[in-house]
Amino acid sequence: MQTSDIVLAQLGLDSFFAEDRLVYDLEAGTVKNPGTERLIYVSSDLMRGIHQALLEETADAWKIIFCNCGRTWGKRVARHLDTSLERAGRGTQSALPHEGYLAFIETYFARHGWGVLKLDLSDAPLGLIVARLTSSYFVAVLSDTDDLVDPLLAGILQGFLEHVSGAELAAAEIACARKGAPECVFVVTARSRLDAIEPLIGNTDADAILATLRG
Questions:
Q1: Interatomic CA distance for residues 156 and 80, integer angstroms
Q2: Domains in the chain with CATH codes
Q3: N or C: which end of the chain has fewer CB within 10 A?
Q4: DSSP structural state of residue 43
Q5: How far apart are CA 26 and CA 60, in angstroms?
Q6: pLDDT value of position 102
Q7: What was the pLDDT predicted at 90?
Q8: In 3-state terms, the chain is what percent helix, strand and coil (to 5)?
Q9: Per-residue pLDDT tens for 192-202?
């Protein structure tokens, strides 16, 4: 059993991801998890089609649209986690130890097929959270571009961490395996700090951008 699975089991949150507890209603055509959140299965072809349609209609604004959708998504995931904690008599996320919500969001990414996520809170005292992702779903699916392709996932991180922290944040992908980086790297921080490094994104490697943010 992986460390994140052990942490979730200790907190009583392992059932949130229990596949044997998914509720299939064939008459209604729905699938729901134990938190009563409706699930859908999105094929690679459908995601490529959505991306292509947005690219043709909005050009580079597809990234903003995906990020905003992800932010809304992340907030909903966080609210469902609150509901599950309350049902288990454990309060809300604010009562969770750091390793609890880290394990939850990392497991959420893996179980939903987005990739293997690792959150790093080493720079949290500086107001900076770093996340690294391997085996990215979007890197695999959007194979006809060499762009940064994970804005939806950046948005999920932003929305989730905004709910957890109670602060307004901003998130961006600063390195992407689709552009040849060894892994996808995201930062979550204050909007003003993100605006300051925006000209570097896509033109500078992740370590240099992180050094700028830490400086």
A1: 14
A2: 3-214 (3.30.1380.20)
A3: C
A4: -
A5: 39
A6: 84
A7: 60
A8: 55, 15, 30
A9: 999 999 999 99
Ordered DSSP codes for 112-149: TTS-EEEEE-TTGGGT-EEEEEES-HHHHH-TT--S--
For 77, the token pair is: 């995931």
Q: How many other C-beta atoms are found inside a 10 Å radius of the C-beta of residue 187? A: 25
Full-model pTM: 0.89
Is residue 20 classed exposed, middle or buried when 0-12, 13-18 and 19+ CB atoms within 10 A define those classes? exposed
Q: In terms of residues, how long is the chain?
A: 215
Q: Which token pair is 93?
A: 């996320």
User: Which is nearest to 176 in space by CA: 143, 211, 215?
Assistant: 143
Write the CB contacts of 186 (distance below 8 Å, at least 6 apart in sequence).
130, 131, 132, 133, 150, 153, 154, 157, 171, 172, 173, 174
pLDDT in tens, 88-132: 666 555 667 777 788 888 988 988 889 999 999 999 999 999 999
* Higher per-residue pLDDT: 16 or 160: 160
Confidence bin at 160 (pLDDT 50/70/90): very high
